Amino acid sequence: MDVEALSYSGVEEASVETAVWGEVVRAPGQWLTITVPFSGEPELLHLKPTTWSLNPPRAVLEGQTLRFPLLGTGTNLTPASVTNAIQTVLGSLQRQIEWTNSDLKQYNLELQVVLLAAARERKKRLDANAALQSALDIPLTSAPTERRVDLPVQRRQVRLSDRPSVGHRNMQPRLTEAVYEDVLRTIGALARSMERVPTTARFKEPELRDLILFVLNANYEGLARGEVFNGSGKTDILIPYQDRNAFIGECKFWRGPKSFRDAIDQLLGYLVWRDTSLGFS
User: Which residues pair with 241 in a beta bridge?
Assistant: First the structure.
């Protein structure tokens, strides 16, 4: 309790119960309310400690303050009587707080022992689970194919075939249809995985593109490049082969049909007559 910040309301008239010739009657009197702020957890003041008084202090809890009235019949409230009454109530409140804090200190000591024992028991269960898992010669269940982003230990080669370009004698490289579809599936699976990871929500387009390039280069022998000049600008993803472009891709956030059409026009601006395949992610 912060007794230095104690305050009181003005003295007002009151109707006070008093005993006259063995009967309880109401008589004119005086009253004022004392307010004292405190720090700590207010809920603890509702608890009944193991040590307690038969005459607990009468106080009303309001937020971080305690309020208690002082009543007197007639005009018998004097500065001295008010001071004595305040000291009596504050003393009772202080004893109540000390008893509660003593119980709380003991409870915290016992709680620490209980929590430590519970933590040790849980660690034993976790260690037992890990030992059992390592002893079982059973593979863990894999996630569904559409939710996985494969990073195989044995990297695959990008297989390209040659096809004649229209009106030109040279053969132009292009991805085989299977690998072309595999590239798009890999990018799509990675995009769906990123949607499930809260961290990637903070990434901007260049950072997401770099993640896609990381996976593509792990899967396709490091051929994928990013931010490469081609045509009228820089495309996000480019897979070159023998000084030709085998695959061109552009990464965009979905912002509606119009922005999608604009992105197509942008991507087409990156193409030249030699380019054969393009993709969106």
Answer: 244
Alpha-carbon distance 146 to 151, whole Å? 14
- The pTM score is 0.40
Q: Which residues contact 246 (CB under 8 A, 6 or more apart)?
A: 158, 160, 173, 174, 175, 239, 240, 276, 277
Distance CA 104, CA 120 (A): 24
Q: Give the residue-averaged pLDDT of 55-78.
A: 82
Report the b/e string of 250-278 with b at 16+ CB within 10 A. bbbeeeeeeeeeebeeebeebbeeebbbb
Q: Which residue has the tokens 């480019």?
A: 238
For residues 176 and 197, what is the distance between their CA atoms, to the nearest angstrom? 32
DSSP state, residue 146? G
Residue where the block lists tokens 């798009």: 184
pLDDT in tens, 212-229: 888 877 776 656 666 666
Q: Beta strand pairing status for 278-280 and 244-250?
A: parallel
**CA contacts within 13 A on the Cβ side of 200:** 17
- H or E segment to which residue 188 belongs: helix 177-195
Q: Are 217 and 224 in contact (CB under 8 A)?
A: yes
63 torsion bin: left (phi>0), alpha (psi -120 to 50), beta (else): left
Q: Give the torsion through C-alpha atoms of 160, 165, 171, 174, to 10 deg.
A: -10
DSSP string, 70-113: EEEETT---HHHHHHHHHHHHHHHHHHHHHHHHHHHHHHHHHHH
| pLDDT for the residue 212 | 82
Residue 227 corresponds to which tokens in the numbers above? 């931010």
Query: How is the chain split into domains, by residue range?
Result: 3-107, 145-280
